[in-house]
# Entry
Amino acid sequence: MAGPIGEEIQGFIDSNGKDYIRPVLDRKIGELEELVLSVMKKELDTIVNLGALIGFLLGIINILFNEK
# Structure
């Protein structure tokens, strides 16, 4: 950052980063991680259910066409 305000902000971050900024970042990163994991679980469940449906349909088709 350029200028006296940028230097002041940088000084504040350097001296207080662990006390003020780190907990906020940790909380936000935790929230983002929870969001990503929940979306991944939802999508994975959908893929698993779709795979089960396709397998069921292929099994039924196989039974219908292989009866002699």
In short: The mean pLDDT is 85. DSSP finds one helix and no strands in the chain.
